[in-house]
Amino acid sequence: MAFTATQKSDQPFNMLFRFGITPLFLFSGTFFPIQNLPLAIQPLAWVTPLYHGVALARSFSLGRIDPAADAVHLAVLCAFAVAGVIAARITFRRRLEV
Predict the structure, then answer these.
(1) Which of 30, 31, 3 is nearest to 16 (CA)?
(2) How many CB atoms lie within 10 A of CB 37?
(3) Under 8 Å CB-to-CB from 80, ≥6 apart: which residues?
(4) What angle do CA 18, 31, 19 make, to 5 degrees?
(5) Half-sphere exposure of 28 (CA within 13 A, CB side)
């Protein structure tokens, strides 16, 4: 939402999908486990919100619930959500003042 409020046309959304969303899917463990990634790229997956969502959904769907790991994944997802809401509020507030 914060990115959306700053755009005057729909052209930048193509870059967002090409350089943001697509790598997020590739490096988050959605299609294959991140253990198959090179060791240098695995930490990149750990900081993406999609990785934590995939790991949480995978643990619930397979019935392999680990309370400690799932709590960490849930906390990270909540932190991303709070940061997104704060960024959106700031951006919308600035956009409405102009």
Answers:
(1) 3
(2) 16
(3) 49, 52
(4) 10
(5) 20
- Per-residue pLDDT reduced to its tens digit, 20-38: 888 888 888 888 888 888 8
C-alpha closest to that of 71 among 59, 81, 89: 59
**Which parts of the chain sit beneath pLDDT 50?**
none
- Tell whether pTM > 0.70: yes
The answer to whether 17 and 3 have CB atoms below 8 angstroms apart is no
Residue 12's CB is within 10 A of a number of other CB atoms, namely 13
Please name which of 59, 51, 95, 97 lies closest in space to residue 77, comparing C-alpha atoms.
Answer: 51
